[in-house]
Amino acid sequence: MDSPSPSSPSPSPSPVNWEALDALVIEFAKSENLIEDFSPPTSPSSSSPSSCSSSSYHYRVLILQIRRLLQRGDIDSAIDLLRIHAPSVLDDHRLLFRLQKQKFIELLRKGTEEDRKSAINCLRTALAPSALDAYPEAYEEFKHVLLAFIYDKEDQTSPVVNEWSDRRLFELAGLMTSVLRAHLHAYDPVFSMAIRYLISIHKGFCFHQGISSPITDLTERLLLEERDLPATPQEGLLEAPPFDEVDIQALAHAVELTRQGAVDSLKFANGDLFQAFQNELCRMRLDITMLDKLIHEYCVYRGIVNSSGPSSFSQGIQLVQEPSVSNKRESESTLSADFSLEVRSGPSMLADTEMDTPGTDDVSIKNPEVDGRYSSGSTISSHEDCCTSGRYRRKASKLLHIKKSRGIGERNKRKRWKGRHEVQIYANMSEEQVSEISSAADASDNKDDKYEIMLAVKELTSKGMAAEVVEEINDLDSTFFAQNHILLFQLKRIEFLKLVKSGDHSGALKVACSYLGPLATRDPDLLKPLKETLLAFFTPDEKFVVKSLPFLDLSTSLQVAIGRKMGIEEPQLMKIIRATLHTHTEWFKLQMCKDRFESLLKIDLLKQVNSCPLTDTISESLSADICNNSSSQGTATSSSKMQEDDRSPAQVSSTGDIASDETAILKVMEFLALPRADAIHLLAQYNGNAETVIQQIFA
Predict the structure, then answer these.
(1) What residues have CB less than 8 Å from 398, skipping those under 6 apart?
(2) Contact by Cβ (8 Å): 94, 355
């Protein structure tokens, strides 16, 4: 199948439901104990999601502890924890044999005479007996590992060089993590799995289309290439149950498995497709430290957590590697956190631990600079201050006063960011060190003032206070709406519709004549939305008016624009989500099917945007410049190519009919090892007859 040229124009980027993302991020932060949870306690008798999440969190901590013990070669301590918390796992003789074999190697690695005697004892009492009934190849592996007695660990030419490799420890740790996660049902939070899935699809889409991703730097650092070893089913099931081929292919393509790998995964999950999917998805390894930083940046930007105070000081907490781990062993960056902490103090504490923020020219999403639905339509300097710091403080106070007078703000009480470890930062610090930290906090007051203004504008807009928002922004910076006329049109449209709803037709007409008309004259793309807005005069129906007020959508777009005007870049997480959701949509257009797992990961909620024809019209007009710019950056998609295909309606209808014949599609996919879209196109050429397609290919 021909792929589009990278220079092809790209369609408008998919809108994102940022409120749904807020909910997923908050759930992730609570599940990982990153923030204070101020939700009221529930009765012990009720099985609440929070209690389930807490239980899962403790299991995940346990799994992490076992993982680190195995990576350090402390096999006995790991086995002790397994006997206490998951004894049934040790009933699997295959796992027990691998643990004992690694214990034997680790005892020899220490090199002392006493440890050598312990290794011989382990050989006689544990390793040899477990080799007899672990699996058919176990006894051969047992005899092979005996060579470690005579070949030194530094000998790179020995036949047991792989047994001495530190990678064996990490593979064993990954395998045990996979087994325990499924055994204890301790899956990662939904957002953690969703970000893995979206990035994986994004990488695959860019690779297959031969285009470069504008967020490569972020995705490569966040989602690592290596995966944990898969948990395999017991050998008792010699034959795989008759799994539905649709399930096998869906799992194989979703997480990049071979067909046999998908079958084995389904066997291990007892045929449960969604459990198998979660098992495979959690094998993908994230840099959790980086993810936490992205989450914290997003939470501060969206007003979910405080931007200053204890959350700022927590940046001084650094993860340090345990002394017993060799320096040459692999990085443990994918693990959640270490159990030993080092509190760094001094003037550079905050600066040294601040997350790297690459410039917008390197990794920013070229499609779009702000929310695709209501972008500014003009280039804004990322670091252009619009007023002095003193004025920021006055404006922040004024906006906060408006919020209080209108009863706004209580609903979104900000939480305190704890991070992976809650530590008394001031403990064991001198007065001089505390003074230095306080000075650093004072230096960030100006940034906090900017955040307060940005968040106040966002919250007032979400409440529909369009007139107040316009007045305050004009007072803050008289040039803002001259550079962002689309946002002014949207705000004045909301004001117009609210006046119509209240019966003030003369006031509404004044707004239309003073603002909407001149703006539409300046930008012809706004003429059609203006006409549709004026229909409210003739249909003063409350349902129409409410539907046409995209408060939440506009509030996010305005937040991004006003934030950039004040030198506050949008969070990198927003760039990742916007880009990956777009490629997710385009990928499944190519596959000509619906994603079976999107509802499990709440991806469908992220795409649910309450848009009306008026909103869609404006979105299309606003995205034109973004699409033209992004095409030069290699963000072309398949849909543009599909729209350019010179196919007749009959051909399109025929392909659609064939796409519904799953049996024929799966048969061609399986026999010819083809992607779904290619199988559909081949079937369309031969009237949907799978046997004819296969015969023609092999003829």
Answers:
(1) 472
(2) no
How far is 696 from 691, CA to CA, in rounded Å? 9
Phi, psi of 343 (to 5 degrees): -95, 115
What gap in Å lies between CA 151 and CA 164, rounded to an integer?
10
Distance CA 90, CA 83 (A): 7
The model's pLDDT over 444-462, given as tens digits with 9 standing for 90+, comes to 556 677 888 888 888 888 8
Q: Cis peptide leading into 368, omega within 30 of 0?
A: yes
Tokens 């948990």, located at residue = 231
Dist CA 50 CA 64 (whole Å): 21
Which segments within 95-168 are labelled E, that is strand? none
| Reported pTM | 0.75
Between CA 209 and CA 635 the distance in angstroms is: 9
Unique residue bearing structure tokens 């590992």: 145
- C-alpha distance from residue 348 to each of 389, 433, 620 (Å): 23, 11, 46
Dump pLDDT digits (tens) for 242-254.
888 889 999 999 9
Domain residue spans in the chain? 49-184, 646-698
Helices (H), strands (E): how many in the chain?
A: 37, 4
Q: Residues of the chain whose pLDDT is less than 50?
A: 1-12, 41-50, 237-238, 309-388, 410-411, 422-429, 434, 437-443, 546, 612-654
What pLDDT is stored for residue 437 in this prediction?
A: 45
Q: Which residues pair with 331 in a beta bridge?
A: none
R_g (Cα) of the chain, nearest Å: 29
Instruction: Give the residue carrying structure tokens 């070949």.
Output: 151
Torsion-angle region of residue 152: left (phi > 0), alpha (psi -120 to 50) or beta?
A: beta
Length of the chain: 699
Residue whose C-alpha is closest to residue 512's, from 523, 524, 499: 499
Side-chain-side CA neighbours of residue 230 (13 Å): 23
Q: Which residues contact 96 (CB under 8 A, 6 or more apart)?
A: 90, 130, 134
DSSP code of 124?
Answer: I
Integer Cα distance of 468 and 612 in angstroms: 24
Closest CA to 414 of 17, 21, 29, 18: 29
| Cβ contact 12:619 at 8 Å | yes
Residue that has been written with the tokens 């297959």 in this structure: 208
